[in-house]
């Protein structure tokens, strides 16, 4: 699938690509590369990366023509896929992604915006004072957009949505009947970079935010877009005020998340999950469906379906109650 | 007392009211109902609700003409009060409240606002650029309102108040000498609804926010209005930045609340309470006066007067120190 | 050093100064006082304060002509420094600071701002809609300032900075290549005051915020300016979203601080510190270099260099893991 919002500046010749980041091209080839994708979605004439044994099964059947990987892992790649060997797989991946998608690195303000009353949405949308709309925006029927709100470029809003005042939205797909309350910032780049003593190297964030039907996002919440995959808020899921959702988080349907909860990157939640106020969810976790997480909990391990947890670190609720009698 | 801000669309005939939410009228009566109130304040020709044994004493003497309640609890009602029986008391209450107060469900942006220099406050108030003022707003003498701030409809501001920039206020009464700093959102609807698989049913929020004399609210804080009662910040109480106060919370006088503290709904605090940064207070708790709560604490039980607590869950401070030596 | 931003309304005659706050002048002198400073930086014809034995070594060699101190501590002062005795040293210090710097007490919105297209920066800066610029602002080359952002008076911005939309900055020095994301509030007064039953006495906040080269501040973060010293964010330090930094905090270089972390006042961090999401750092702590603090931790003690901690209260990481097996 083509990236919906970020402009791919490719194709690039593999030789030029590697030279520009000071890597030697040991593949002796000279192909045109169209895009960079993750290992399961990359196609012929695309480049991917493979940095952990967790992905061996996917690597064995990748359709990518090139793969950034380590000396040890390269043997798992199929014949169609030429290895680009580096001990810094993620950094090289970031460097090449940056070449394909230079716009995804920083979130400078959108210079393309115009006041909505100069836009095609003048008649269609009910809007407040000083509403700004960027390029490549689409808005459905019966939507409301509050005062001082900025819909930057690359936003799709469905029907019947209510966007509050002082909100900022970019690089996002908002489905139908969604409520986004005052002061939210949605679709900004995730907090991803490679530390470097002089100036950190920002990781490109080419994913988007998707907010499904009937969801509600509370005041002052921040939802960052994904790096290579997307950040997703499920159907009919409600978020209270001052919630922080980091990049690549995927929240299921019918979840209820109370105020000031925070998610580190790349965790997934099932459906019907309830989370009490100020709880924190670490990165790269898998939280099942029908899970209840008590207020103030710090979740640092996966949680299976139908489980109630509480505490820091979070443990089974019964155990928490017993330990704190 | 009449609701100060939300328009009561009643009276409604009790028969029509119940029919419209698919309930059978077993009372065989046909009265006009003027309003919906809680069990202690409801009067003749008003409807109330009674869903928990905690309120038996109030139920026995209610002046309401009708009461939504359960098969078991209805026997406690006095003769003047006809029961409307349902096993979903709170949902039926919400449905009927929504009929009386349809404006209280959602917080779509206020279309009634005008730039302050077109309002009656043009000369009276010292204001910044792009300040918007809604209908039914009153502002006292010697007030300051910062840039881009939106005073939506239904706001009363006393004398000598300083409102910062980028703030949003609605459905609130701000008394005298109050400071509200940049980026606050005050008076939005609380996070209340009945979960429903397709689309949650939002609970009407017909309460307001009251901020008493000399209080200060830090940057980026959110204070939600009450559902049936009000959210109150006491006299000379100071809130630091990024604090979240949920609906119906009542905070006493001379309290000091540090940054990023969060309150779940309906808790009450006495006077002279000090709360350290990032502490969280669960819902429906009673915190006494002269209480000190350590930073980062998670309070899940009532706290008596003159007590120092810390920890998650919060316990007596001495015990916390002993346990963590 | 002269205060860079706050106007010193002095000099004041020592006699008049003390009389205006109802203190008796027991020094029998009548000198002009030029400024109020901390005990190590105060010079001849300036006043300082000395309230704790921690500062005896500095007090013994102070160059100040006057020092607010206690009956017990006054004996440590050198001959050049006349004691002003009070048992409320900090309150008297605040009262005198307020006389010298009346503008530092409250953060009423800046009435001096103009739209940037009426300013000297019209050609030099790339800016969005509705950008406001106050007096005494300087902006370097190649800077971007987003929509609705307010640069209030007393701000210096270096070269190559990107400021997002809906941000508010005052009383701050931003160096080069700094990124400040949407909705930040930087340079507001700290949360400092003396409790008083009727109306708290606000402590003057005459420090500033300094953000060093290559730093990044995430969306919706608040960084308060210092009271007498400054609040500092080091070089190439990255802050994620919704972070709260209280007055006088000093963060070193190359630190990485995840979302919703909070700092109480006056703590210092070394270099290369990593802090996980939602961690809280109490006030007046010294955190060393190369420290790692786990997400959700509550730090209430100093942490030496090269240490990993986690927990509430935070302890050595190995111990935390052992205790929570």
Question: Can you offer a commentary on this structure?
Answer:
Chain A folds into two domains: 12-104, MurE/MurF, N-terminal domain (Udp-n-acetylmuramoylalanyl-d-glutamate--2,6- Diaminopimelate Ligase, Chain: A, domain 1, 3-Layer(aba) Sandwich), CATH 3.40.1390.10; 114-323, UDP N-Acetylglucosamine Acyltransferase, domain 1. Helix content of chain A is 10%, strand content 28%. The first copy, chain A, is built from four helices and 37 strands. Chain A has an eleven-stranded mixed β-sheet. In chain A, strands 7-9-12-15-18-23-26-29-32-35 form a ten-stranded mixed β-sheet, with no helix packed on it. Chain A has a six-stranded parallel β-sheet with strand order 10-13-16-21-24-27, with no helix packed on it. The first copy, chain A, is globular. Chains in contact: A-B, A-C, B-C. Chains A and C meet through loops of A and strand 11 of C.
What features would you highlight for this structure?
28% strand, 11-stranded mixed sheet, Udp-n-acetylmuramoylalanyl-d-glutamate--2,6- Diaminopimelate Ligase, Chain: A, domain 1, 10-stranded mixed sheet, mainly beta, 325 residues, UDP N-Acetylglucosamine Acyltransferase, domain 1, homotrimer
Corresponding CATH superfamily of the largest domain in chain A: Hexapeptide repeat proteins
CATH-derived architecture of the largest domain in chain A: 3 Solenoid
Q: Which runs of chain A of at least 5 residues are low in confidence (pLDDT < 50)?
A: none
Largest sheet, spatial ordering of strands of chain A: 8-11-14-17-22-25-28-31-34-36-37
Q: Determine Rg of chain A (CA atoms, Å).
A: 22 Å
Largest interface: B-C, 42 and 41 residues
Q: Residue share in helices of chain A?
A: under 10%
DSSP helix count of chain A?
4
Query: Could you describe the largest sheet of chain A, including whether it forms a barrel?
Result: 11 strands, mixed
Shape summary of chain A:
globular
Level-1 CATH class name of the largest domain in chain A: Mainly Beta
β-strand percent of chain A reads 25-35%
Distance between the termini of chain A: 54 Å
CATH topology-level name of the largest domain in chain A: UDP N-Acetylglucosamine Acyltransferase, domain 1
Overall tally of domains of chain A: 2
Mean pLDDT figure of chain A: 95
Assembly category:
homotrimer
């Amino acid at each position: 699938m083509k990236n919906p919002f970020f402009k791919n500046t490719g194709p690039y010749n593999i030789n030029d690509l590697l030279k520009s980041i000071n890597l030697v091209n040991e593949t002796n080839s000279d192909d045109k590369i169209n895009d960079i994708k993750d290992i399961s979605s990359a196609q012929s004439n695309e480049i991917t990366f493979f940095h952990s044994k967790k992905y061996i099964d996917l690597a064995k059947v990748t359709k990518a023509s090139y793969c950034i990987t380590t000396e040890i892992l390269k043997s798992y790649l199929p014949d169609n896929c030429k290895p680009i060997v580096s001990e810094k797989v993620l950094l090289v991946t970031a460097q090449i992604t940056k070449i394909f998608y230079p716009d995804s690195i920083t979130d400078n303000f959108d210079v393309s915006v115009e006041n909505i009353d100069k836009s095609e949405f003048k008649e269609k949308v009910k809007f407040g004072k000083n509403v700004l709309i960027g390029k490549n925006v689409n808005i459905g029927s019966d939507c409301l957009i509050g005062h001082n709100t900025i819909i930057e470029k690359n936003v799709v809003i469905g029907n019947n949505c209510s966007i509050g005042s002082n909100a900022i939205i970019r690089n996002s797909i908002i489905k139908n009947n969604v409520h986004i309350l005052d002061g939210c910032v949605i679709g900004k780049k995730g907090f991803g970079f490679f530390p470097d003593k002089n100036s950190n190297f920002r990781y490109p964030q080419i994913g988007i935010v998707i907010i499904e039907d009937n969801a509600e996002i509370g005041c002052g919440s921040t939802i960052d877009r994904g790096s290579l995959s997307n950040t997703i808020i499920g159907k009919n899921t409600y978020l209270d005020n001052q919630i922080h959702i980091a990049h690549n988080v995927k929240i299921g349907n019918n979840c209820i998340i109370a105020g000031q909860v925070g998610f580190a990157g790349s965790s997934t939640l099932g459906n019907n999950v309830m989370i009490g106020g100020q709880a924190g969810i670490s990165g790269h976790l898998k939280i099942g469906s029908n899970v209840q997480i008590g207020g103030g909990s710090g979740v640092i391990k996966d949680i299976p379906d139908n489980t109630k947890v509480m505490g820091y670190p979070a443990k089974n609720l019964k155990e928490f109650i017993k330990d704190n009698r």
